[in-house]
Amino acid sequence: MRTLILSSTVVVLLSGIIIFMLLSSPLLNDISTDLVNPPEFFFLRQHFPHRNFEFPKDSAEAHRALYPDLAGLAIANRTSKDVFEVVVRVAAQQPRWQIVHQDQERFRLEGTAVTAWLHFRDDFVVEIRPPGPALTESKFVFVEMRSKSRIGRSDLGANAKRIRNFLAAISQELPK
Q: Cβ distance 156 to 22 under 8 Å?
């Protein structure tokens, strides 16, 4: 009887914590370092045409308010190929990540990450971008990332955390 009461109390407490987190979390589940031109899911879209991979452009204002610090990395004095090799290696080392596609010509990869607690599957894409036309003299390449939950309206901050952690790991490997 005591075990049943204790188990019930734990379930109620955990349920309360989850409900609180859901109610206090933003209704965002698709996070990107580039809100104007977010990385696109080409491979996953092709293989899972029934899923919606469109970035919700109407969420950009809320996105900026909640994650004002979230931005891509500018890497100096490295080629796109060199940076991509590091991105692939670091992505392969991430726990519960599976790389599902690498595009060596466009310097992009797509994959799936599994959350620790509830084992939800989220999709991510990383692109290495050369300097844009306005930056033709620049010696920087840019690492942009997007992470999208497959289910739910809120990700409880998991996608932003995933992006921050991954870009921090890249920064440790490649000084800016």
A: yes
